[in-house]
Amino acid sequence: MVPDIAEYVRQLVTGARAAARRIASASSQVKNDALVSMADGLLTAAAALQGANRKDLAAAERANLSPALVDRLTLTEERIEKMAKGVREIVALHDPVGEVIDGTVRPNGLKIERVRVPIGVVGFIYESRPNVTADAAALCIKSGNAVILRGGKEAIHSNVAVYEVIADALESAGLDRNCVQMVNTPDRAVVDALLRADGFIDVIIPRGGEGLIRAVAEKATMPVIKHYKGVCHVYVDADADLGMAETICMNAKTQRPGVCNAMETMLVHEGVAQEFLPRIAEKMRAEKVELHGCERARAIVGDMAEATEANWSEEYLDLVLDVKVVGSVDEAMDHIARYGSAHTDSVVTRNVVTAQTFLDEVDSSTVLVNASTRFSDGGEFGLGAEIGISTDKLHARGPMGLRELTTYKWVVRGNGQIRT
Amino acid sequence: MVPDIAEYVRQLVTGARAAARRIASASSQVKNDALVSMADGLLTAAAALQGANRKDLAAAERANLSPALVDRLTLTEERIEKMAKGVREIVALHDPVGEVIDGTVRPNGLKIERVRVPIGVVGFIYESRPNVTADAAALCIKSGNAVILRGGKEAIHSNVAVYEVIADALESAGLDRNCVQMVNTPDRAVVDALLRADGFIDVIIPRGGEGLIRAVAEKATMPVIKHYKGVCHVYVDADADLGMAETICMNAKTQRPGVCNAMETMLVHEGVAQEFLPRIAEKMRAEKVELHGCERARAIVGDMAEATEANWSEEYLDLVLDVKVVGSVDEAMDHIARYGSAHTDSVVTRNVVTAQTFLDEVDSSTVLVNASTRFSDGGEFGLGAEIGISTDKLHARGPMGLRELTTYKWVVRGNGQIRT
What ipTM describes this predicted complex? Predict the structure, then answer.
């Protein structure tokens, strides 16, 4: 229990601000030392982490959490090893801090550069999986930011145990323990106070269900980088290679249906619907995918449920797929503009004009041609690790890695220039 | 008078959204045609613009506006020519839309690019000068954005007249009139409704006094890019060339004191204070600069007012200067961190270590060594024209030009890749 929330939050944010000023100029070597020591520490502390995790699991049982949630919460030895491995992968990534983005010499001799610098203080609010704690902390350390972590209450004992390892690792590398801080109470008033601490926290990154993210976005007085949901489309064009379309659609829907870059709606050009729909429907059903169709799709494949207006903007995160027949790439793009979530949309076509039109005009974070929506991911894009995905337009769009945890400043070198 | 504000704002934002989708893929040629026709149109309409302006000037007289405000409001023939010239300068700038920021081929053959695209719909809220209307509209058109303009009520007739020229120019180039829209009522309820239209307006850029900007930032439910004020510092180091320091400080304070990149506080190392302070004080006084000093500064230059705690964070925008003697670059940087506005700060020194420390550790949008703070400006940095200055950390920092009115999307080209 926290006796005085305002004072607790004041200490968190002033501690973070001071730590941010110091870690901003820490060398890659020092930051990597902390990360290596953190990875080692996670392995050494495996038994203690599992002990803390058992308290969360016992509470989860008492609270009757679903088996899926309990599974996500569980820290096995293998998962702890994976967590440590994830941290070591971040050690190997390029440190973006100090990078000169561009530079020029002005006619008056001023040398002007834009130099990458850490954002400052990140607030990271997330749900139940304890491995996210290690991941997020490691990304913030590597990018020179201080971070305040607030995990789900279901994982609080596990998170605090992981946090102790992180703080010790920071100290052993000569960094401030406060570079990473963990909210150690489930009290929501603490979150509310953090969300009003603009001036101390530079950006909030929420990760979890749509409800959590909406609540954070509404209350926060500082910038929030977020995505609400992924209503991803694959448009099978009249000029598609239907074999390729089938492979891509099956992968996009069934390879991992519970994630934000899985396909939720398949749009099929009327020119190929008669041929394509029966065969994809059969394949989908073999994988136990429930289909909802528009009127025209249902005229071709009889035993499909009727797609309601609300269905088109739903993120199922499950083996459910909406199917619509469209008359043109324009109609497909209109549908995406209206019902999509600006996350990830793909076109399957052999027609280079159609492909370019789709890539140019669909206003989503990620647009693909002839590839599965499932590739929209920091790891797959080569970012190494991702702190989240943004469907916002400003600062970062799509998968966010280390670079997206930085900003820049203008550095100007002169030899006495004045303005006339 | 607007009978139904909700309906009026709904039309504005849906019109902007639809126009944004179209102008996003307009070619540079078409956008430039619109701008050239706008520049021509401003000159052709000069008499009509001055006629509309006279209504604003008459109202200003009735409202007893200050001579400075009336001057800013006045559209002379020369100013109209300057406005047209400003638009032609934007024609000549590089169009950032479509630029490939970076790209890579993944081991599985996927070709991944980040491509610059317009943000979408910009809301631009500003104060009295009518030339800003033409400037902002031209920058948004060139960067492929739709914009909703809301100028000060003092300039409403002038702004609407300038707007008519813009809308005709858009149309003559085959673009949608709604690419630029102008709020034609001073009713503040319209602004309030616009600030709640997230989902339609992607970003709000306010430009004006601190009061306007704070009100906008508090009410807006979408991202806001802004700067509240410029409390800019020059730190004269122990190793400064004092002649250079004098030139830079005089320029930073007196060349144009009413703007946000003018110096408000001068920090002087104790090692040179005895020599430097009397000579700079004399020069400042010759330019009618009122000086406020810390205790140590006043011990050296007797007839200086005492600087109060509140003074250190004030943006005077006038011939007033705070002076403080510090013991080290660290003390100077602590002062800047505490009282500064993260806008623009400069160090004068011959010591390369001190210079680098200052450039690295001062967390401001622009940091300079041996140059006047007055250079912190889009034009001076080579951006061509600026839509504003940001002291925020996300998306854009410092002067914002065309590039800062864009975002990016991930474009992925495959040949049937699926994720395994």
Answer: 0.95
Separation of alpha carbons B27 and B31, rounded Å: 6
| d(C-alpha B177, C-alpha B171), whole Å | 6
The CATH number of domain A232-375 is 3.90.550.10: no
Chain B interface test: which of A213, A246, A352, A394 (most B C-beta within 10 Å): A394
d(CA A387, CA A39): 18
| Residue A383: closest CA among A413, A405, A356 | A405
Q: In what order do the strands lie in the sheet with A180-182?
A: A180-182, A146-150, A121-126, A203-207
Structural contact between residues A227 and A217, judged by C-beta atoms closer than 8 angstroms: no
- Closest chain B residue by Cα to residue A103: B381
Residues 6 or more apart in contact with residue B213 via CB below 8 angstroms: B206, B207, B226, B227, B228
Q: What is the pTM of this model?
A: 0.94
Q: How is residue A227 written in tokens?
A: 């995505």
Number of Cβ within 10 Å of residue B186's Cβ equals 13
CA dist., res. B12 & res. A175, Å (int): 52
Residues whose CB falls within 8 Å of the CB of residue A292, separated by 6 or more in sequence, listed in order: A304, A305, A306, A307, A308, A311, A320, A321, A322, A323
Identical fold, A5-226+399-412 and A232-375 = no
Locate A370 and state its tokens. 């002839």
Domain A5-226+399-412 has CATH 3.40.605.10: yes
Rounded to whole angstroms, what are the CA distances from A390 to A336, A342, A398, B317? 18, 9, 5, 39
How many contacts (CB atoms, under 8 Å) link A and B? 199
Beta bridge partners, B115, equal B100, B409
Class of domain B5-227+399-412: alpha beta
Mutate: best of B405, B419, B420, partner A, most A CBs <10 A: B419
Measured between CA atoms, the residue of chain A closest to residue B410 is A366
- Torsions phi, psi of B34, nearest 5? -60, -40
pLDDT tens-digit profile, chain B (420 residues): 456 999 999 999 999 999 999 999 999 999 999 999 999 999 999 999 999 999 999 999 999 999 988 998 999 999 999 999 999 999 999 999 999 999 999 999 999 999 999 999 999 999 878 889 999 999 999 999 999 999 999 999 999 999 999 999 999 999 999 999 999 888 999 999 999 999 999 999 999 888 999 999 999 999 999 988 999 999 999 999 999 999 999 999 999 999 999 999 999 999 999 999 999 999 999 999 999 999 999 999 988 999 999 999 999 999 999 999 999 999 999 999 999 999 999 999 999 999 999 999 999 999 999 999 999 999 999 998 899 999 999 999 999 999 999 999 999 999 999 999
Cα separation, A115 vs A97, in Å, equals 8
C-alpha–C-alpha distance, residues B344 and A312, integer Å: 49
DSSP code of A201? B
Ordered by start, the domain boundaries in chain A are 5-226+399-412, 232-375
A374 to chain B: which residues are within 8 Å by CB?
A: 418-419
| Chain B residues within 8 A of A104 when measuring between CB atoms | 382
